[in-house]
Amino acid sequence: MKPASILQSVKRSPYLEVLWVSTKLGLTSFGGPIAHLGYFHHEYIQKRKWMDEKSYADLVALCQFLPGPASSQVGIGIGTIRAGLLGGALAWLGFTLPSILILLFFALLMQTMDISSAGWIHGLKIVAVAIVAQAVLSMGKKLAATKSTASIAFVAASITLLWQEVYSQLLIIFLAGLIGMFAFKTVSQQENNSLIEIRVPRSAAILCLILYVLLLVVLPTISSLGHSQSLALFDSFYRVGSLVFGGGHVILPLLEREVVPPGWISKEVFLAGYGAAQAVPGPLFTFATYLGAMFLGFKGAVVSTLAIFLPAYLLIVGALPFWKSLRANLKVQGALIAINAAVVGILLAALYNPLWTTAIVHSTDFALALLLFGLLVVWKLPPWIIVLLGAAAGEVLTYLG
């Protein structure tokens, strides 16, 4: 069959079309969540006209409101609106699979070598410092720019550093949301004339929300009663995917608390994978694939990937029919403002521990981190170039030392 005939067949099937377009985006979407939204806008809105501008903006607002990976949820939402529930799943698969395969391969490669003294691994750790510092700066300007929100961020960072328990970060987020419901009462009403045509029955949406909450509540109990490593892995990654606000780099401290203290993987292996994850296209949440593979091989990669993304699918499908009324609630808006500020604080704490304390050992490490940070913030180089430069510089520093 000729390529033109294949493309015609794809276009005739909404399912194949969604899979085809999302896979192309999964192979080419570098640069993190904000860049992903730009790629989506060009491909889905400007080029293919699958949604109008107002509907797309409304969908982006919904996904930024929900916990989980915002760009992945936007893709799932577009796929769902285009081709129903299966379309949402196919949109996620196409966008995510390329980075899953790359990070799985990287994990298998890591398992065949001794990384304890590898210079490029140390370089990747320094890369992580520079990238997270940029994320803290960028998110702080947007989400913690006032005295009130900055205070929440600093308090959250301090508590995170002083109280390093598994559930401390989740409790901080919950308390911040509670404070925000009453502290931020002057949030302006947003336009409430959504143009999104929802193809999700309310019964299916409610079922997804019930399943989301049920898994969140039941999994820890089942995991504690059994002795299955796979179940424990699923529980940990599902919990992170369910409760992380801000997406992207914010998963770093939450995942670190889940996998390093129990001894599933070492801090060095964790940070090396996080640095490598910056160089691949698609969502940063596929870092979970690498972690699962390093812990339980191929089975662990599958379990961790499904667990961390499942909440995103359940939440976006469950929330779509109710978004119009939800976004108009001032208390919900106020809670989100405080939660986002707390997330900035948690990420700031992670910049110090585990990143800084592990990667910045000598003055040369700090000098390299400053250079990479400058290339990111001032010269606006893409993260994948920073990763390559950092890894190469790590090797050079090893030989010079």
From TrEMBL:
Protein's organism: Paenibacillus marchantiophytorum
Localisation: Cell membrane
Keywords: Cell membrane, Membrane, Transmembrane, Transmembrane helix
Mode of membrane association: Multi-pass membrane protein
Protein name, entry field: Chromate transporter
InterPro entries linked: Chr_Tranpt_l_chain, Chromate_transpt
Keyword Nucleotide-binding among record annotations: no
Gene name in the database record: chrA
Transmembrane segments: 90-113, 119-137, 167-184, 204-225, 237-255, 276-296, 302-323, 335-353, 359-379
A Pfam short name: Chromate_transp
NCBIfam families: 2A51
Family according to the record: Belongs to the chromate ion transporter (CHR) (TC 2.A.51) family.
